[in-house]
Protein 1
Amino acid sequence: MSKYDYDLFIIGGGSGGVRAGRISAGYGAKVAVAEEYRYGGTCVIRGCVPKKLLAYGADFHEAFEDAVGFGWTITGAEFSWPRLIANKDREITRLEGIYRKLLTGPGCEIFDGRAVLADAHTVQINGRTVTAETVVVATGGAPTKPDIPGGDLLITSNEAFQLPDLPKRVVVIGGGYIACEFAGIFNGFGAKTVQLYRGGQVLRGFDDDIREHLAVEMRKKGIDLRVGVDVVNVSRKGNALELKLTDGTSLEADAAMAATGRRPNTSGLGLEALGVALDAGAAVKVDEWSRTSVANIYAIGDVTNRINLTPVALHEGHCLADTMYGKRPRKPNHEAVASAVFSHPNVAVVGLSEQQARRDFAAIDIYRSSFTPLKHTLSGRRERSLMKLVVDRATDRVLGAHMVGADAPEIIQGLAIVVKAGLTKAQVDATIGIHPTSAEEFVTMRTPVVAS
């Protein structure tokens, strides 16, 4: 009989924690999971899912405009932000219930409350003390605000999902995927939207062609995207906000959103007192098996700041459960992970950018195509899509695939198999396309536009 109350105690009921818990319990482990907010974590409650629901909603104004070119006459369309938020909240509540059942179904015990480590095997929660042989920290991360005068007046993505009304004028601060997504959302619903980024171009770390193309398309849609500028001060001006910028100008807005970074949720958990090593950004340091510097304590998901994506957290949690209780030891594999930005238009990528490939390979070939999608030949919209393949010339292996345009995430998911499996450009070329689609462009690009 175990000397501990549980074989596994998981702190955090988000995607990674729930996956690790339910799979471990399915293998026969005695598991408990604690969550201080709502089960489902960032992705389900105030991240990927509600964000994409809002992004879908923001698409409709263009759909109504585009319909005219296809013979439709649409009049009297009205939008209600409160109705959208209420519908979104109802769906999130439904999903939270599913996440709870995913745990209780295989026998996990769930705690609603904040769990803190008293020692490596002891957890305190809701005035109760329990013990566990193994502890997993899966507490995710949270948005941060810039340390500037008036920074407390800014909202973050958390609050953006619960605004009682749609602001008429919005400033989004940041150039990452969250900033680009919310700029598209607010703009799509009709708010006058300004996006400010201190760097030279949005989506730092993405392929340069993708970054430039997205910026052009965002501006076409009416977003006032300004790069090389930042906010130095925020203050109230009547019922509005005034933002002073580094270029000496100022802006007025009804709401200003900081999308300037996220920080792992490690504060106040008792980790440092136990000797759990954290990096300079407060993320938990882990080895290739997700083990921390304390032998029986593991960490997965955004709290480790490896690749902060929901499917990665799920993968890490599943690997941990398989390794510890399923007699199938395996390390998380973080290579060739596809990702998407649900901006307007969408961005999706997998593998190496052109810039990364040039650093790592002696010679590469670049295949690139920019075109007007068939839909817009009748809609009249000036939107253009961009597709790009990065290929190692020596082996003909496809190193990266990149796209800006409608349905980019759906298309790149298929290309992720190509990159992950190490397939060659010749194999891609031998694939017959589906016509007429945008996706077929990936199998019809025959001539390198850049070779080096």
Protein 2
Amino acid sequence: MKLGVIIPAAGASRRFGGRSKVAEDLGGRPVLQRTVELFVNRDEATCIVVAAPVVPDGALNEFKARFADKFALLGVRICEGGREHRWQSVRNALAEIPDDCTHIAVHDGARPCASTALIDRVLEAARKHPAVIPALDVPDTLKRVSAEAVRDTDVDPLDAILGDAGKSNVTVRRVEETVSRAHMVLVQTPQVFDAALLRRAYGQADLDSTDDAQLIERLGESVTVVEGDAWNVKITRPSDIDLARRILGAKGPSERPSHLKF
């Protein structure tokens, strides 16, 4: 197996408060560097491409200033990511993967906690199956809710006087139906594909998707699921950084001696 690895890292981090989640400190190294290091020393990985942010203006230069030197030492390439969608980042990175790669892995830049055992499991299955994804069974009740959330406030005669002062900021949505969780799974990355199959999937006219396996499914091809890892968290919100630090046993800047904070 000759593995090309694509790491999309061009997201806007809106749910993280607008600042770059992949640049957050994780035990003295940025989240994205931790993610890249999951693959750097793997014998199968012959090429790693990171798709970098290009919006807002200047984001790519800022990204390169932060990561380019270190990534060059690790043999990692940087390409321009998508301006609007994740699939645009993967498509751009695909052009950087050499033709002699037999397989291509796509792994979220904000998943630095993937274990060696998980990656081994996905790659082993990928030697036998053309499209492999890790996933976890859904443990909780699933409900479909209304699209819009409204602020949960009581009508009060004093509203005309006080306005919004002292009102609750809790927002609520209404349950529309309960959805069966039977055979439902929570999908993770890395997702690994036969290289020719993934390239064919990205040759389709309709690339709207939330993960790469969805494009394989659109071709009518089979996708194989292996057991995921509950610790393979995707950093989405600020609280996820604290969880990732606990999983990796990594200290935050304020917990380290002064000379190790930068």
